[in-house]
Design goal:
The protein is of the alpha+beta class. The protein folds into 2 domains: about 1-75, tRNA intron endonuclease, N-terminal domain (MutS, DNA mismatch repair protein, domain I); about 80-170, Trna Endonuclease, Chain: A, domain 1 (3-Layer(aba) Sandwich), CATH 3.40.1350.10. The protein is about 30% helix and about 25% strand. Strands 3-4-2-1-5 form a 5-stranded mixed beta sheet, covered by helices on one side. Strands 6-7-8-9-10 form a 5-stranded mixed beta sheet. The protein is globular, with a radius of gyration of 17 Å.
């Protein structure tokens, strides 16, 4: 099991071949100059849930999923809905990365495609089924996808944590 240190704003793996293999094979995290892998909260939660990593606090005590999730909620907007969509897409074999520079939550690569080899196919916006969007907000999300030459995918999460996806496309009549 890969050891991961939770250090306030950063979550870093140990400097090991297993950690780098996690990045090379599945594109979890980003490589640092010193050979470690920096993970996001969502990646850390997912890998902890799958028992691939052990997350340690500053005193080298293991953190449970619930404890790490509570820490994530402090900085991650809409953490539960975002985690449900992230987990579902990863479980389906997609590589999921942040898309902040695109103005979206995630960018998702088609199966078998790794970041750097080709562009992401979708930008994804996780939404709770009880929330609503104005036409202006919906249009803005559509424009983000269109301007980045990606498809818009809305991940709608229900009360049980199940996700349904809707792909939105431009059409010319």
């Amino acid at each position: 099991m890969i050891q991961v240190q939770f250090l306030k704003e950063r979550i870093l793996t140990e400097n090991s071949n297993d950690a780098r293999e996690l990045f090379n094979q599945s594109r979890f995290g980003t490589l640092t100059k010193d050979g470690k892998v920096q993970l996001t909260f969502l990646e850390s939660l997912y890998l902890l849930d799958k028992e691939k990593v052990q997350v340690l606090d500053g005193k080298n005590k293991p953190l449970s999923f619930d404890t790490l999730f509570k820490k994530a909620q402090k900085t991650e907007h809409n953490a539960w809905v975002r985690y449900c969509v992230f987990k579902d897409l990863r479980d389906r074999g997609y590589i999921v990365k942040t898309a902040l520079k695109f103005g979206a939550d995630f960018r998702v690569y088609d199966r078998g495609v790794k970041p750097g080899e080709d562009h992401a196919k979708w930008v994804v916006f996780p939404v709770n089924e009880t929330s609503s969007l104005t036409w202006y907000e919906f249009s803005a999300k559509n424009r983000v996808a269109h301007s980045t030459k990606k498809r818009l995918l809305m991940g709608i999460v229900d009360e049980e944590g199940e996700t349904t996806y809707y792909e939105v496309k431009w059409m010319r009549p």
